[in-house]
Design goal:
heterotrimer; A alpha+beta (about 90); B alpha+beta (about 650); C alpha+beta (about 170); A: about 90 residues; alpha+beta; Ubiquitin-like (UB roll); five-stranded mixed sheet; about 30% helix; C: about 170 residues; Alpha-Beta Plaits; two-stranded antiparallel ribbon; about 25% helix; disordered C terminus
Chain lengths: ~90, ~650, ~170
């Protein structure tokens, strides 16, 4: 079994009640699959703040500090960061 | 209506502290027609009245405090106040902008702006209570911290209805980067405006107003304002609710994820301890309101409420309390390599109470830490100055504020002037541009920010444009439409960035001049035409947006359209440049420090730099668009004529400062 | 049976309600002419909206010697008739909430009349700091419970000293 680390920022950390966790992945699992796992785990509220499309209008997911397509195949040890797109200063 | 244009209160308050004289003038009509108010009007006042070669702490220096035509008129985010002077930190044009409801209250009292000259023979404060304006003795408040002074003044006056702008003991000690703090938590922080105020023996300005403001076209005005509110409430960034929940500290983790969080005095751009000094940590451990914080604290008429309040309950720093912002966290935290949020929070409230600019103070400490580690500066006071030492960082805040011992007095000069005094190659370790230190965003990663730092009129500063466009991943179609390049919205691309900076800079000049907040056209983009373009892209039928041109027109009665609005922005940038040319600013000063042309050594953004050649190329394009001479950086005569700035041209021509 | 509910824990102190009120009623932007007042307690970071609670057993009505204050049976609002008002300020004195305002400039009292059942202030409140209930029975019990819980949770914190430790004196 191999793992990835998922980090939650902002409101996601409130819903999940944690800042990061380690999630086991199987061979060939895509980012989309991982998101489905998280939907199942954290339920309605999580899904709601996540938004529908993975574009500029909802959650921002970076994998090892880079934005990846939804079809990206996860590698063991990847660091996945889930946040919203905001500005400030 | 006493004044021809609506929205304005209609009067200017002139205070001569040397003679103790207070004059109420009618607002200058040509000035507001050309420069609106706020930052633009302040720059014009300084251009007309300030003797350029004086020492900024001389009594001849002028301190301008201005509101804009839409301050306090129910529009979204209309609580901004602008402060301008000749900066003691940079010795060029200095200005700073603050929130709260102080500005609106000034307008309800009947004044658009205050022009302060001279120096009081003994400490005084200026008390404004509608038409009763007087200078009162402030001997009992001198040496008091911001907290104590503000609360004492509120008690003396009308309690919570009195709004107070005060300076702290650090300013009285002559620390060069002190701020004026409005209502305890909002500070006009940068460029040392507070130091100038202290040099005039003016401890505070209290305001309370019971008057009224009228707009030129009430029905239309209400419609436009409602449209603006809906524009911001429907903005995708606003809808996430993140900014309202965490405030600006949200940028700590976010900047770290994007790889532009300055760490250990800009050596690196990711901080391993970012999570422990983040907004999330602050929310979970110290927030004084239940989470998600349904209501943070807002400035006048602002739905964004970006101020976050917290309190440390136990431990070494128990009792520390107050509001916190991202820039302060980054300055005392990641820049100093400190990952202890309690120490950072404590340093932050200390700096506030002393009345110092957190950014400059944190940068000075971080620079010293690096200089000590590099062996250029000796830790003569035996503080254990090195990255990550939280105790030394907190101790340095005290020492800088009190100018205590050698390092304290050095730090009080700000990073750049201190480095010059230290000598050797110490300056190479600072990140100062035109004498002001860089805020918490590394320009080697965010290229638009890089160009902004170089050209900004008050020295290294992001708020002159705030090109957050490149950070929030706007669709490429919008970049193409507005700035002629699909890559303009990419963080690390150079394409289209000059046009992007120009557009943002023009609008930033407008928002600062009318008294609105930068977040409305940077961060949120609720400003025309961005929501319209987004709406077209997503096939939305009804789109709301903030239309500044309509807004100003309906409030004041001037006729301004979108194109004219951008022209006014262009004019304001030019008057600031004109002022700066008098202070000796030329092309050579629009630069990036050596540190940013060297590649980043570690982390996911390893290898990124902002090469000098690239900057020169961008500057050429920028200068051409601004109508400035490519070689010297002086403004061209033709441009000033085009902008209807004949009187400025005549003045500059006499001094031989135009091309 | 209309009533405005003021939720201090949700108020951000943006004062949009003050401006909306004065603009709607007087056509100018002037917090001093608003029926609602936000008290901004800066040192605590708290903002408290204050307005008329339209009390059932209203002290202001009892105290008014000229019967200038009366209840509008349709909206439940206590309304002030300027024609009868002699400016004795008794209502101001007896109001336990400080919800009746007096402007020195125009010698006129300001008193919330619920804008005939459609209050302007709530239209501008984005956080729910002020809410309007046409039937007070609608006011959810759960919300009351939340308010009490919030109060209890925050109780010990407000007894802390103010001192930030800055401005050290010799």
């Amino acid at each position: 079994m191999t793992n990835v680390t998922v980090k939650y920022l902002m409101v996601f950390s409130q819903i999940t009640q944690k800042r990061k966790e380690v999630i086991p992945i199987s061979e060939g699992m895509t980012l989309q699959d991982l998101i489905e796992v998280l939907y199942a785990k954290y339920g309605r509220k999580f899904k709601k703040v996540f938004g529908k499309d993975l574009g500029h209008r909802s959650a921002l997911i970076t994998i090892n500090s880079e934005v990846k397509e939804i079809s990206y195949i996860l590698n063991p040890g990847d660091e996945i960061l889930i946040s919203h797109i905001v500005g400030g200063g | 209506m006493t004044f021809d244009y609506g929205g304005y209160a209609g009067k200017t308050l002139r205070v001569d502290l040397s003679k103790g004289k207070i004059l109420k003038e009618t607002q200058s009509k040509p000035r507001v027609e050309k420069y609106l108010g706020g930052r633009g009007a302040d720059a014009k006042i300084l251009f007309d009245e300030l003797e350029p070669n004086i020492n900024p702490l001389n009594s001849d220096n002028i301190l301008c405090i201005s509101t804009g035509p839409i301050t306090g008129l129910l529009g979204p985010t209309t609580g901004r106040i602008n402060v301008a002077t000749k900066s003691p930190l940079t010795e060029i044009y200095g200005n700073s902008n603050a929130g709260s409801d102080w500005g609106s209250e000034l307008k309800y009292a009947g004044y658009d702006n205050i022009i302060i000259k001279g120096k009081a023979p003994k400490p005084v404060y200026l008390c404004i209570d509608d038409e009763h304006v007087e200078l009162k003795d402030a001997a009992h408040l001198w040496r008091e911290g911001i907290f104590e002074a503000t609360l004492a003044l509120q008690e003396e006056q009308r309690g919570y209805d009195t709004k107070v702008a005060a300076i702290g003991p650090a300013a009285e000690n002559g620390v060069l980067f002190c701020s004026i703090i409005f209502n305890l938590w909002d500070s006009a922080g940068r460029t040392g405006t507070g130091t100038v105020m202290a040099s005039k023996n003016l401890k505070a300005i209290t305001v309370s107003g019971s008057g009224e403001l009228k707009v030129a076209d009430p029905d239309r005005y209400l419609e436009i304002v409602r449209d603006g509110w809906l524009g911001i409430l429907n903005d995708p960034g606003f809808l996430t609710g993140e900014h309202q929940a965490l405030g600006t500290p949200i940028c700590v983790n976010w900047g770290n994820a994007q790889g532009w969080l300055p760490t250990r005095n800009f050596r690196e751009t990711t901080f391993e301890g970012a999570d422990s000094i983040s907004g999330e940590e602050f929310r979970d451990k110290y927030s004084t309101r239940s989470s998600p914080i349904p209501g943070g604290r807002a400035c006048m008429s602002c739905p964004n409420r970006c101020k976050r309040f917290g309190r440390i309950e136990s431990g070494k720093y128990a009792g520390t309390r107050g509001a916190i912002e991202f820039e302060g966290i980054a300055a005392f935290g990641s820049k100093c390599g400190v990952s202890d949020l309690e120490a950072v929070f404590h340093a932050y409230t200390l700096a506030n109470d002393y009345g110092m600019d957190c950014v400059s103070c944190g940068n000075a400490i971080a620079t010293f830490m690096e200089l000590v580690e590099e062996g250029i500066l000796e830790d003569v006071d035996k503080l254990g100055l090195k990255f990550g030492n939280a105790d030394a960082m907190v101790e340095m805040v005290h020492r800088i504020a009190n100018k205590q011992d050698k390092l304290g007095s050095l730090g009080a000069l700000g990073a750049y002037k201190a480095a010059l005094k230290i000598g050797k190659n110490a300056v190479d370790y600072t990140t100062s541009i035109k004498g002001m230190d860089t805020i918490a965003c590394d320009p080697r990663v965010a290229k638009g920010f890089g160009l902004t730092y170089a050209i900004s009129s008050r020295g290294s500063d992001h708020l002159r444009t705030h090109v957050v466009f490149e950070m929030i991943r706007m669709p490429p179609e919008i970049g193409k439409e507005l700035f002629g390049s699909e890559k303009a919205c990419d963080l690390m691309s150079y394409d289209g960035k000059v046009r992007m900076v120009l557009w943002h800079e023009n609008l930033a000049a407008i928002t600062d001049s009318i008294g609105s907040c930068r977040f409305m056209h940077g961060s949120y983009y609720a400003q025309y035409p961005v929501p319209e373009l987004l709406g077209k892209l997503h096939n939305k039928k009804e789109v709301n947006s903030i239309k500044y041109h309509d807004w100003i027109s309906a409030a004041t009665g001037m006729k301004i359209d979108y194109k004219k609005l951008l022209d006014i922005g262009h004019r304001i940038v030019n008057i600031e440049r004109a002022l700066n040319t008098r202070f000796g600013i030329r092309r050579k000063d629009d630069m990036l420090p050596k540190k940013f042309s060297e590649p980043i050594k570690k982390g996911p953004r390893k290898g990124q730099s902002f090469p000098k050649e690239q900057l020169e190329k961008m500057l050429d394009e920028y200068y051409t668009n601004r109508g400035w001479d490519l070689k010297t950086g002086l403004i061209k005569k033709s441009e000033l004529i085009k902008l209807d700035m004949k009187e400025v041209l005549d003045d500059l021509d006499k001094e031989n400062l135009v091309k | 049976m209309g009533k405005l509910i003021f939720n201090y824990e949700r108020c951000t102190g943006c004062r949009a309600c003050e401006l909306a009120c004065s603009f709607h009623k007087e056509g100018v932007f002037a917090p001093s002419k608003s029926r609602i007042k936000i008290v901004r307690i800066d040192e605590e970071g708290l903002d408290i909206p204050i307005g008329c609670e339209q009390c059932d057993n209203a002290p202001c009505i009892t105290a008014c010697p000229t019967r200038a204050l009366s209840r509008n049976t349709e909206t439940n609002a206590i309304v002030l008739s300027p024609d009868f008002c002699i400016g004795c300020k008794q209502c101001m004195v007896v109001c336990p909430f400080g919800a009746i305002h007096f402007n020195e400039n125009r010698k006129i009292f300001y008193k919330c009349d619920l804008c005939d059942g459609s209050p302007e202030c709530i239209k501008w409140c984005v956080t729910g700091g002020i809410e309007y209930y046409e039937e007070i029975e609608e006011f959810p019990k759960r919300k009351s419970a939340d308010r009490i819980q919030h109060f209890l949770l925050n109780l010990p914190k407000s007894t802390r000293p103010i001192d930030t430790g800055g401005g050290k004196k010799e």
